[in-house]
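Quick question, first post here. What does this chain look like in 3D?
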Amino acid sequence: MAVIPGERTDLVTTGFYARMRHPIYAFSTLLMLSSAVVLPTAPMLVIAAIHILLMALKAKNEERFLLATHGAAYEDYRRRTGAFLPRLRGRGP
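> Answer (accepted):
Ran it through. Tokens below.
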């Protein structure tokens, strides 16, 4: 989950990653939303909003890194998958 400039990583597109690009962030967000439903207090709602915003920013940062690192392969992968929700069908050309 760390973005280290200059580091070459493998592009993983199997398992949960076959349908969505950020399953860890998606499940973390789902857990936070569930916590906010169970404990719907003002502080919890603020924490949930901040958490979701940070997950979205982290995902954007990773997307930029992976696009720069993997180029066309990552762009093709982005077209086929959803970011936080599974895409049931890939987009056409």
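Residues 15-79 form one domain.
The radius of gyration is 15 Å.
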